[in-house]
Amino acid sequence: MKRATLARVAAARSRRQPLMVVTRLADGAQCLLDAASCEGELPLPAEQLAEARGFLSSGRSSSLAGAAGLFARAYVPSPRLLIVGAVHIAQALAPMATAAGFEVVVIDPRGAFASAERFPGVQLSDEWPDEALGRLGLDAATALVALSHDPKLDDPALELALPSPLFYIGALGSRRTHEKRLERLRAAGLGELTGRIHSPIGLDLGGRAPAEIAVSILAEVIQVRYRGDRVETGA
Amino acid sequence: MNTDDDSLFANLQQWRAAGKAAALATVVSTWGSSPRPEGSHLAVDEAGHFIGSVSGGCIEGAVIDAAAQVMASGRPQLLEFGVSDEQAWQVGLACGGRVQVFVEPVE
User: Fold this and answer.
1) Can you tell me the ipTM of this complex?
2) Are residues A78 and B106, on separate chains, in Cβ contact within 8 Å?
3) Lower CB count within 10 Å: N or C terminus of chain B?
């Protein structure tokens, strides 16, 4: 791999841009591919170019079928977890999700909660959730969990999240709290979308401690990421 | 693709910026119950430090050895491990799968 290729891959990852490297296994010759361009020492015929772009759009890494010995490696954005509410559960969830490969942002305008002392090494936003979510962008590789227990923070986040392509939306709270939340979201005209909210949040592992709840939330986010929203729980 | 790849590429860049030789290994084919999917990376520096994985841990040692040869020669290698392979029994791909790993130098 050429140094320039390494730099391009690293840069695309930090900008959350998809990129593909196609390698000829016989000699290591490579080309860099995105939706618009294809550059490098390995020329790709139109047929293989189309096949590679198809893999890139689905985030798949695989050998190209049209030609022997060509391997296409897709680099797509990391999954992201946006946590609204810098609460005790968030303190446990943020490092766990980071370890599981998620890019994590904790959002809470209350400085006493979202402090570097409480969240060492975690990306923090002290914006209001609607501002932060507008800046960060809600894409299909991103999950959002509303943990603040405060409608002033959770509701604006959910109002933006529900019509977005986020792959997972969860909200913490008792059944009664959630019923009230649903009433407010229905009044805001989002009634048809409220079924997207996972509540009670997390897989039912039975744990009560903040770290145990964080495990069940992260487990559910991972499950939905790979299996989709319609999973038989066996419950 | 996840932040594991971010730290892997960050490490590769740091190693090269510090003037260390490095190689990148990639799973390019799998058959049967191989533990890591196609595209999985393992990065190795000249001192044998490594990050990432191309199996559940059973073939990493052999891939790191090959990476040292690739760094020395500057030429890529295509390795194959599987139960039908004498060497793989010694290396120990116990899962019963078969895997092809491409190892390339990083300029």
Assistant:
1) 0.85
2) no
3) C
Query: Do residues A118 and A55 both lie within one domain?
Result: no
Cis-peptide into A165, omega within 30 deg: no
- For residue A125, tell me if it sits in a domain: yes
Residue partners of A224: CB distance under 8 A and separation at least 6: A143, A167, A168, A198, A231
**Is A235 inside a domain boundary?**
no
In sequence order, the 6+-apart residues with CB closer than 8 A to the CB of B68 are: B23, B44, B46, B48
Contacts of B75 in chain A (CB under 8 A): 28
Give the tens place of pLDDT for each residue, B31-66: 877 778 999 999 999 999 999 999 877 889 999 999
> Does the structure show a pLDDT above 50 at A103?
yes
Same domain, residue pair A108 and A199? yes
From chain A, the residues in CB contact with B16 under 8 A are 3, 6
User: Which residues on adjacent β-strands are paired with residue A74?
Assistant: A20
A215 and A131 assigned to the same domain? yes
Do residue A12 and residue A99 come from a single domain?
no
DSSP category for residue B42: E
DSSP 8-class letter at A13: H
Residues A223 and A112 in one domain: yes
The sign one gets for the Cα dihedral B53, B58, B59, B65 is: positive
C-alpha A48/C-alpha A139 separation (Å) is 28
Q: Looking at the structure, do residues A118 and A52 belong to the same domain, yes or no?
A: no
The whole-angstrom separation of Cα A233 and Cα A10 is: 39
Q: Which of B1, B4, B105 faces A76 most closely, judged by CB atoms?
A: B1
Domain extent, residue A51, equals 3-75
Quick one: residue A206, left, alpha or beta (phi over 0 = left, psi -120 to 50 = alpha)?
A: left
Q: How many domains does chain B have?
A: 1
Residue B15 structure tokens: 């190693």
Answer yes or no: do A84 and A66 share one domain: no
CATH number of the domain that A143 lies in?
3.40.50.720
**Contact flag A1-B104 (C-beta cutoff 8 Å):** yes
